[in-house]
């Protein structure tokens, strides 16, 4: 219909246009050209209408009519449906438009495996290098797809969080990115859903698209998260740790790739089922993929090998060539080579501990624990992304509403920017000065306006303006540097629009910009100083507290408190300048600073609670701080962390904590300082562009907090400030909870400790060995009736030359379960729970027993139904030589190679498993006894077994006494054996008879008892102090007692000669040190913090010098028979032992700590560890006090100057050169003699040959 309107008034025009629009017909107002349809269509008839007709039509169309309730509901439903249809159409169009626009990138991302597998290394690396850009495109597309099909949201969110969290890492492992590429390939298959408009569309079977995919999306999201956690574990491992277990970790990663391929198949199958198009064809394709899945892991293995770095190949070759990780750990030279090749530094002892820990670590448990943390990290990442989107949205709305040219968000800062005519950036100094000028002018206008009879409306009008006037005093040149650092985020010297917006919008709600600037000008420094004092107080309280933790926590607590992370904390505190004493004179500034501190600490604490105070890497730190600089959060973050750690140390007074508890604490501090190192590196790059002296700039940046972290942040014990720090005036806290104090009685101590919530612990307490008798729970006996199913008890044996059968591995209890031709189950021996897998072929049985460290034995034999036994042979599963003198008693090792001959790996040995109960297996006859007289053998076994069972059931004293004696003896021998192969000192090696006895005990004990006793052995050994130092004479790890030389000491106390108690009178040479037995030694029985070390050394040196003067030369090395209890020196007081009261002479010991003038301890009392007499000369003396040894009265020589030491070294080198020259001459002479003799010998042979020829 066509409407031709003529001669209507202006009011009618509006109404007619509405009617025309309602009727969806063309409309032309009066005086305009007629609106005609296209020429190809016939012209519609023209209708002549008058004004009254139009008005009545309008009133009829738009009059108010009452509508029934049912009709209203129908109308509402139609409206909603039309809206949904409209939105669905928009989403459908949007995702398809996006896909078309980015088809090339999405196509490449969707075929990553195919494009990578057959390429060279450079091509693979190019594909990996574009992952960040490609993933950004994929994530945008997935967001669009999620608008069309909301059911994919769960998997899209999981993918986005995992990828986003990974992208924040400064360094990404190429192998991990290769796995993430396969994850991305899986996500790209979801774009096939773009062809379907409605998620509620039903398929041929009546199932909606949403319902069909819901459970599959949940499963994929779960596997994506698990893969992200596995990659997270791999990334956090050190280079050496990753290489040691590369096969295990890479196998796990490749397994996820296979899982992703399976999910791709499931998605394609679900799509085919829903569309019912080409189902048979798809099924054929899916059937063909089964073979493809089998080669996916092999393909990933090939990719991993292509991505191996030269360093990885070198280290892996060393490991393979030397018999595997355990063999490398046992060999010092190989371990040293590994450390050097890995580039991780550290001494042999530390490397051995790392390797042993990695080999004994349960990978499944490791992945499980990390999964919990990773979930929390993803949750924090999700919150951070949501906050970012919210803030960004608000900024965009603000900018759009203010005009395209107006990009500054804060009104005051916007006015400053406009008045100054600045463009995209401004010099930071000009910015600060302009702030001062602006607020000075605006406050002046406010004063004039207040005085004027008719006040105007100034630009700067705020109810709190007069209250903020105080803040203007801090916006000046004096505080210029602090303001610059707060606003100029990247430190370039220029303030950009983004930096100005970030600074202004980051202020707390309700704060004015003026107060915010004032806080950063002066308040932040006071806040940092407050935290500095609190952290110092906490650390000193920790030093006092850690000495009284339960002995089972001592080693772990020492490692935490005296580790490198804690040393970095001290460096940070020492390098940070404190605020002026007048910082808190201004109460208004104090209130602002306190408000900010309280609010920020609460937000930070909430985030830490969400992560349960476990910070495993720098990316986790960024979840707390966001993109902002670490220096803004560093001190409050450290304070909160250390406060939590202090509470955990309190709990260590009451319970034995899991080692992982301490590891998490150390790792969290390490992560914080990794973030610090990254920040310092960024600042260094900026400063190098503008200044030659970076260190000088750092001394003035952020109050100098990074000055000592620049370059090589190596601690210098001599400068350590921990023990000398005193709380600064104005920064003490009277109600600070840092008890218990060292002088508190037991009741008060317990009441203080009882307030600490044990729920803060992340791991179960270890007050007693856990899970020692849980083997049958972990591996329940199967209920099936197959002859091979059930419990087996036996041994893998070694027959040594001219000796009886030896059982290095002890008695093994094994549970087998047969499924078809395969065997699976578990085993237990004194070392722990082992894995078992195998096969069955008729009566032939083959199974592999694998230890936690990867060592495995392959057993082959046959099952005897008549005797109900498995008898056969075993061999090292890796078919490699085992080190003949390695002692496998470690937590993660096997003793099978201890005393075996060199060909043990290629020689088969007997293996036997029976149904005899483990408790009486020790009484079972040998195969030789059975072959000689089977009746006697069986009868003897039966009698012994019955007697043992009766005694066990009745718990007779004879049985209990025998059991206690056996346990004590086993633990004694096992402790000495561990100390031997662990290279601990002091130690006493086992004799051959004692070693045979230890092997016999391991064989006699049932596996659960052996496992329990060994756990008790380690439990007791944890109580010994481990100084993490190596004796410079015997090169063993020093435990229990540490000796260091005062005369062989680096000037900054960074290095010295260390000795164990068994090498006290031995000489030692290392680096520049030449130690003689006559040197002055200090003995300690507890770990010394660097701050304590810095105090002990000068004090011990002074005491030794004065005490030496007090002894007459004639008394050296004399016994004390001629001295009496009252012997007195005019300089050193009574020279009597404070432990026995007898007179002392050289050699003797003098306490460094006791406050009496000199507290002497005779050699005999010191060796026995005697306590001080209550009535003696120093009743307060304890065994924890450091002692200095006075060997004789010879004065301590002055330390040589650097020049003289260099001259002495040059003399020694010259002497060495002379000796080498002489040695060369001797070798040349020897070669000449050999040549002459060989010449004569050849002549003789030639003559004999000629003689035989002539004959």
Structure description:
InterPro entries: EF_hand_dom. This is EF-hand domain-containing protein. Residues 475-510 form the EF-hand domain. One of its GO terms (molecular function) is calcium ion binding. Residues 876-894 have a biased composition (Acidic residues). By secondary structure, the protein is an alpha+beta fold. It has eight domains: 2-62, no CATH class; 81-284, no CATH class; 309-358, no CATH class; 413-506, no CATH class; 524-720, no CATH class; 775-919, Quinohemoprotein amine dehydrogenase alpha subunit, domain 2 (Lipocalin), CATH 2.40.128.120; 1028-1199, no CATH class; 1209-1255. Helix content is 54%, strand content 10%. It has 40 helices and 28 strands. The strands form eight sheets. The protein has an eight-stranded antiparallel beta barrel. It has a six-stranded antiparallel β-sheet with strand order 20-19-23-28-26-27. A hairpin with a 5-residue loop joins β7 and β8. The longest helix has 53 residues, at 1202-1254. The radius of gyration is 41 Å and the shape is globular.
Please outline the helices and strands.
Blueprint: E1 2-4, H1 10-23, E2 27-28, E3 46-47, H2 51-62, H3 69-101, H4 103-109, H5 112-117, H6 121-129, H7 131-148, H8 153-167, H9 174-188, H10 209-236, H11 239-244, H12 246-275, H13 279-307, H14 310-321, H15 325-330, H16 332-342, H17 348-360, H18 363-402, H19 411-420, E4 425-427, H20 428-451, H21 480-487, E5 494-496, H22 497-505, H23 513-546, H24 554-561, H25 564-575, H26 587-610, H27 618-625, H28 630-651, H29 659-690, H30 694-700, H31 746-754, H32 775-778, E6 790-796, E7 798-799, E8 805-806, E9 812-819, E10 822-829, E11 832-841, E12 844-850, E13 856-864, E14 869-876, E15 909-914, H33 927-932, H34 934-954, H35 957-981, E16 984-985, H36 992-1004, H37 1007-1021, E17 1026-1030, E18 1037-1039, E19 1042-1049, E20 1056-1059, E21 1068-1070, E22 1073-1075, E23 1081-1084, H38 1090-1110, E24 1128-1129, E25 1133-1134, E26 1148-1151, E27 1160-1161, H39 1163-1168, E28 1187-1190, H40 1202-1254
Parallel strand pairs: 1-2, 1-3, 16-18
Antiparallel strand pairs: 4-5, 6-9, 6-15, 7-8, 9-10, 10-11, 11-12, 12-13, 13-14, 14-15, 17-18, 19-20, 19-23, 21-22, 23-28, 24-25, 26-27, 26-28
Helix pairs in contact: 1-2, 3-7, 7-8, 7-9, 8-9, 8-10, 8-18, 9-10, 9-12, 9-13, 10-12, 10-18, 12-13, 14-16, 20-21, 21-23, 23-26, 23-28, 24-29, 25-29, 28-29, 35-36, 35-37
């Amino acid at each position: 219909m066509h409407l031709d309107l003529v001669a209507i008034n202006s009011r009618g025009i509006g109404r007619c246009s509405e009617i025309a629009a309602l009727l969806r017909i063309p409309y032309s107002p009066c005086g305009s050209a007629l609106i005609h349809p296209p020429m190809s269509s016939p012209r519609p008839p023209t209708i002549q209408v008058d004004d009254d007709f139009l008005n009545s039509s309008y009133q009829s169309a738009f009059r108010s009519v009452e509508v029934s309730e049912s009709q209203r509901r129908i109308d509402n439903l139609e409206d909603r449906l039309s809206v949904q249809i409209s939105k669905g159409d928009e989403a459908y169009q949007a995702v398809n438009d996006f896909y078309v626009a980015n088809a090339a990138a999405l196509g490449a991302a969707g075929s990553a495996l195919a494009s990578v597998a057959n390429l060279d290394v450079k091509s693979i690396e190019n594909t990996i290098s574009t992952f960040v850009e490609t993933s950004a495109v994929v994530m945008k597309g997935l967001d669009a797809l999620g608008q069309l099909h909301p059911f994919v949201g769960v998997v899209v969110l999981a993918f986005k969080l995992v990828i986003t969290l990974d992208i924040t890492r400064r360094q990404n492992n190429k192998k991990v990115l290769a796995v993430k590429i396969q994850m991305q390939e899986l996500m790209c298959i979801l774009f096939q859903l773009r062809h379907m408009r409605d998620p509620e569309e039903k398929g041929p079977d009546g199932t909606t698209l949403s319902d069909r995919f819901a459970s599959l999306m949940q499963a994929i999201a779960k596997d994506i998260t698990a893969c992200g956690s596995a990659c997270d574990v791999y990334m956090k491992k050190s280079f050496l740790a990753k290489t040691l277990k590369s096969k295990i970790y890479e196998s796990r990663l490749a397994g996820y790739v296979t899982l992703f391929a399976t999910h791709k198949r499931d998605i394609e199958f679900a799509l085919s089922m829903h569309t019912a198009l080409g189902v048979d064809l798809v099924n054929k394709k899916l059937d063909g993929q089964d073979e493809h899945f089998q080669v996916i892991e092999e393909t990933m293995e090939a990719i991993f090998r292509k991505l191996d770095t030269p360093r990885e190949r070198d280290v892996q070759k060393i490991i393979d060539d030397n018999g595997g990780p355990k063999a490398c750990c046992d060999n010092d030279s190989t371990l040293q080579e590994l450390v050097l090749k890995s580039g991780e530094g550290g001494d042999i002892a530390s490397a051995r501990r790392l390797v042993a820990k990695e080999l004994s670590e349960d990978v499944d448990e490791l992945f499980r624990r990390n999964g919990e943390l990773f979930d929390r990290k993803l949750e924090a990442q999700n919150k951070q992304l949501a906050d970012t989107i919210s803030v960004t949205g608000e900024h965009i709305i603000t900018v759009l509403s203010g005009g395209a040219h107006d990009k500054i968000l804060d009104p005051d800062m916007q006015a400053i920017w406009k008045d100054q005519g600045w463009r995209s950036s401004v010099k930071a100094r000009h910015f600060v000065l302009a702030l001062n000028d602006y607020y000075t002018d605006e406050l002046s206008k406010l004063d004039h306006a207040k005085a004027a009879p008719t006040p105007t409306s100034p630009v700067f009008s705020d109810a709190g303006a007069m209250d903020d006037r105080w803040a203007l005093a801090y916006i000046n040149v004096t505080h210029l540097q602090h303001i610059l650092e707060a606003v100029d985020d990247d430190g370039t010297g220029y303030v950009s629009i983004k930096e100005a917006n970030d600074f202004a919008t980051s202020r707390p709600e309700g704060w004015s910009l003026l107060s915010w600037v004032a806080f950063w000008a002066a308040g932040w420094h006071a806040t940092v100083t407050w935290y500095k004092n609190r952290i110092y107080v906490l650390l000193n309280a920790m030093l006092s507290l850690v000495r009284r933790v339960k002995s089972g926590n001592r080693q772990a607590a020492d490692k935490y408190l005296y580790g490198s992370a804690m040393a970095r904390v001290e460096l940070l505190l020492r390098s940070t300048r404190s605020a002026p004493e007048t910082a808190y004179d201004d109460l208004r500034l104090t209130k602002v600073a306190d408000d900010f501190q309280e609010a920020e600490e609460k937000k930070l604490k909430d985030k830490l609670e969400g992560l349960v105070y476990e910070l495993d890497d720098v990316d986790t730190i960024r979840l707390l701080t966001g993109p902002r600089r670490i220096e803004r959060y560093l001190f409050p973050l450290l304070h909160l962390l250390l406060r939590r750690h202090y509470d955990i140390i309190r709990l260590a007074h009451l319970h034995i904590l899991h080692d992982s508890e301490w590891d998490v604490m150390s790792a969290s501090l390490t992560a914080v300082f990794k973030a610090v190192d990254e920040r310092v590196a960024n600042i260094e790059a900026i400063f190098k562009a503008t200044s030659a002296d970076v260190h000088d700039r750092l001394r003035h940046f952020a109050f100098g907090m990074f000055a000592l972290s620049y370059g090589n942040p190596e601690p210098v014990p001599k400068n350590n400030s921990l023990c000398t720090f005193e709380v600064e005036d104005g920064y003490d806290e009277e109600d600070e909870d840092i008890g218990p104090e060292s002088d508190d009685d037991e009741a008060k101590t317990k009441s203080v400790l009882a307030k600490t919530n044990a729920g803060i612990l992340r791991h179960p307490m270890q007050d007693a060995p856990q899970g020692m008798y849980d083997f049958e729970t972990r591996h329940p006996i199967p209920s099936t009736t197959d002859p091979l199913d059930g419990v087996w008890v036996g041994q893998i044996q070694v027959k040594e030359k001219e000796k009886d059968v030896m059982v290095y591995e002890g008695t093994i209890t094994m549970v087998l379960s047969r499924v078809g031709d395969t065997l699976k189950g578990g085993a237990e021996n004194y070392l722990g729970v082992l894995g078992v897998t195998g096969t069955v072929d008729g009566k032939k049985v083959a199974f592999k027993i694998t230890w936690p460290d990867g060592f495995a034995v392959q057993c082959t034999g046959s099952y005897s139904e008549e005797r109900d036994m498995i008898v056969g042979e075993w061999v090292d599963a890796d078919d490699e030589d085992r080190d003949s003198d390695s002692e496998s008693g470690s937590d993660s090792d096997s003793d099978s190679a201890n005393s075996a001959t060199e060909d043990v790996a290629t020689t088969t040995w007997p293996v036997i498993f029976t149904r005899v109960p483990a408790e009486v297996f020790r009484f079972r006859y040998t195969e030789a006894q059975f072959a000689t007289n089977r009746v006697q053998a069986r009868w003897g076994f039966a009698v012994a077994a019955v007697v043992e069972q009766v005694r066990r059931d009745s718990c007779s004293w004879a049985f209990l006494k025998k059991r206690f004696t056996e346990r004590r003896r086993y633990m004694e021998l096992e402790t000495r054996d561990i100390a031997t192969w662990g290279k601990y000192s002091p130690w006493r090696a086992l004799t051959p008879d004692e070693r045979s006895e230890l092997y016999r005990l391991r064989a006699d004990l049932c596996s659960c008892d052996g496992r329990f006793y060994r756990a008790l052995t380690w439990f007791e050994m944890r109580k010994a102090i481990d100084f993490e130092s190596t004796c410079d004479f015997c090169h063993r790890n020093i435990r229990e007692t540490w000796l260091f030389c005062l005369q062989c000491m680096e000037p900054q106390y960074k290095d010295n000669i260390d000795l164990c108690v068994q090498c006290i009178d031995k000489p030692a040479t290392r680096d520049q040190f030449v130690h003689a037995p006559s040197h002055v030694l200090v003995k300690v029985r507890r770990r010394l913090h660097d701050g304590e070390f810095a105090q002990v050394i000068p004090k011990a040196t002074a005491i030794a010098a004065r005490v030496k003067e007090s002894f007459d030369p004639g008394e050296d090395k004399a016994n004390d028979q001629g001295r009496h209890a009252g012997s007195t020196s005019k300089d050193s007081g009574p020279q009597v032992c404070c432990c026995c009261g007898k007179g002392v002479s050289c050699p003797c010991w003098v306490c460094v700590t006791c406050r009496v003038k000199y507290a002497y301890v005779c050699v005999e009392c010191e060796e026995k560890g005697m306590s001080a007499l209550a009535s003696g000369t120093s009743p307060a003396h304890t065994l924890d006090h450091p002692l200095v040894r006075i060997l004789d009265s010879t004065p301590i020589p002055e330390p040589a100057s650097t020049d003289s030491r260099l001259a002495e070294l040059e003399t020694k080198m010259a002497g060495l050169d002379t000796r080498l020259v002489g040695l060369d001459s001797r070798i040349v002479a020897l070669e000449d003699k050999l040549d002459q003799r060989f010449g004569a010998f050849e002549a003789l042979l030639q003559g004999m040959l000629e003689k035989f020829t002539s004959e």
